[in-house]
């Protein structure tokens, strides 16, 4: 039985990963750090800003102080908001799916993005009120692939009395990245991958069910995945 669905944000609800890449490149240019989109997708996608900057500097062999990290996160958030003002389009069918699920069960959001990145987009899509719990990079110490964010999301749903017990059966996560998949699995949750950011064959190699789109997906479709104990 499907008890709750937790959505990732970037790459599942909206196609913002390329926007994050552009924002990173804008603020890292003065440090002589850059990477192509394929390199970003392979090495950095799925990290929150904090761990993303740490990874960029580590791979470049450069030192990153805590003060510089704090400043870069603020710069990148401002750059992302500026880029996002040009408009963000949701993936086909995802808004409709969120609304239909929220009418019958708890729906939550678990993202490695900053709350300030997420809230304006949720507002523009008029879906913020459908999420019973929202966990962002601001709420955790460790980003995906660490399971902390998904564990916290489940805890908040249970804290609100929206889930009956402490078991994780019947909770489905919808993800698009290897880091997100690992995070959800580490929290003991079932995962459905959507091939918005990575090829379907690659995601299938991670031993998760994969769909090419959430368009026309129903709660029954999702429930059948949970029943297979994925």
Describe this structure in words.
The chain is α/β, with parallel strands linked by helices and 230 residues long. 46% of the residues lie in helices and 10% in strands. It is built from 10 helices and 6 strands; from the N terminus they run E-H-H-H-H-H-E-H-E-H-E-H-E-H-E-H. It has helices spanning 17-28, 37-43, 49-60, 66-84, 94-102, 115-125, 148-159, 178-186, 200-204, 219-227; strands spanning 4-7, 107-110, 133-135, 171-175, 190-194, 210-211. It has a 6-stranded parallel beta sheet, with helices on both faces. Strand 5 (190-194), helix 9 and strand 6 (210-211) form a beta-alpha-beta unit. The longest helix is centred in the N-terminal third of the chain and has 19 residues, at 66-84. The radius of gyration is 17 Å and the shape is globular. The model has no long low-confidence stretch (mean pLDDT 92).
Task: Identify the notable features of this structure and list them briefly.
single chain, 10 helices, 6 strands, 6-stranded parallel β-sheet, alpha/beta, 230 residues, 46% helix
């Amino acid at each position: 039985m499907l008890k709750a669905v937790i959505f990732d944000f970037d790459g599942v609800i909206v196609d913002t990963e390329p926007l994050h890449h552009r924002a990173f490149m804008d603020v890292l240019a003065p440090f002589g750090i850059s990477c192509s989109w394929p390199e970003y997708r392979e090495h950095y996608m799925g990290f929150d800003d904090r761990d993303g900057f740490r990874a960029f500097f580590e791979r470049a062999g450069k030192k990153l102080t805590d003060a510089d990290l704090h400043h870069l996160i603020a710069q990148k958030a401002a750059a992302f908001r500026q880029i996002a003002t040009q408009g963000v389009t949701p993936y086909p069918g995802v808004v409709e799916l969120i609304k239909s699920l929220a009418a019958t069960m708890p729906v939550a959001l678990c993202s490695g993005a900053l709350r300030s990145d997420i809230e304006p987009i949720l507002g523009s899509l008029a879906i913020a009120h459908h999420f019973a719990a929202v966990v962002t990079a601001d709420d955790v110490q460790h980003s995906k692939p660490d399971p902390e964010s998904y564990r916290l999301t489940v805890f908040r749903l249970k804290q609100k009395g929206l889930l009956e017990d402490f078991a994780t059966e019947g909770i489905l996560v919808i993800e698009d990245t290897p880091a997100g998949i690992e995070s959800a699995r580490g929290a003991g949750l079932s995962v459905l991958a959507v091939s918005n950011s990575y090829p379907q064959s690659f995601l299938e190699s991670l031993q998760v069910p994969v769909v090419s789109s959430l368009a026309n997906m129903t709660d029954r479709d999702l429930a059948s995945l949970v029943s297979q104990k994925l």
